């Protein structure tokens, strides 16, 4: 009977798998919960991504002021694996329900303006139609696929809620934000006589489609109502476009206030937006804007490389505010 072969000596122990950096998982979970609740996510974001998120946040805040009710969403996380370098393997789906109109379709701001307008001699009950919420302000159900996130240690003055981390880029609907967003578009229009102005804040590019974010400011002493775009031309040859008329459902802007708009475009690299401006009390047109929105060369950026502000006329890159 032969003896069993000798047992080889044990080799060096394998190092334990690297653990996730302290606080990173909690930071990711906090950011996801803010997305689900449709709350500001700025405390978790790096500078460029924060600008992109702010453009949408301002639109949502204005919609809420007009009476649109934004509902919390549902978050389904399949995978959330933080790694030592700040990369977070994420596979999640965010379901946002459609926006809800208030029961009486009135916003508090527009309702006050309507009440005051009805007291003017010669005004009719048609004034109440101003306060209906414009269909373009309503968003249907959204299903958003969230992918990998790229986090970095935050600075000393970062919000403690972020647990010492900031998100600098992430994958949404299969594309990284840095390759989709431009937060430095060119263009503006000002109607000095009417006291109104508009400037683009951000543009997203997804192939041949995109979204344009605008800010419209009102320096007048009275409330104005905006209508965006001209009525569609009726079918047939030699048909004229209908006359632009006071909107039965418009976008109110309070005196010395601003409003933020977002719309889809099939020409995201250069498009023009027409905005017609009306006095909410007299229903008279007080101005119009034609806002050119243009992306500079190299905008948006690439995967992991955010685009920089384009140089001015002297070739210098302006400093960030």
Please tell me the overall pLDDT. Answer: 84
> How do the strands of the widest beta sheet line up side by side?
1-2-3-4-5
Query: According to CATH, what is the class of the domain at 18-101 and 139-180?
Result: Alpha Beta
CATH superfamily annotation of the domain at 18-101 and 139-180: VirB8 protein
Could you give a short account of the major beta sheet?
Answer: 5 strands, antiparallel
Class based on secondary structure composition and strand pairing: alpha+beta
In the CATH hierarchy, the architecture of the domain at 18-101 and 139-180 is: Roll
Q: Count of DSSP E strands? A: 14
Q: Helical residue percent?
A: 10-25%
Element string (H = helix, E = strand): HHEEHEEEEEEEEEEEE
**What name is given to the CATH topology of the domain at 18-101 and 139-180?**
Nuclear Transport Factor 2, Chain: A
Name the overall outline.
elongated
Q: Detail the poorly predicted runs.
A: 104-131
The percent range for strand residues is 25-35%
The number of helical runs is 3
**Mind telling me the C-alpha Rg?**
26 Å
The oligomeric state is single chain
Ends apart, CA distance between termini = 86 Å
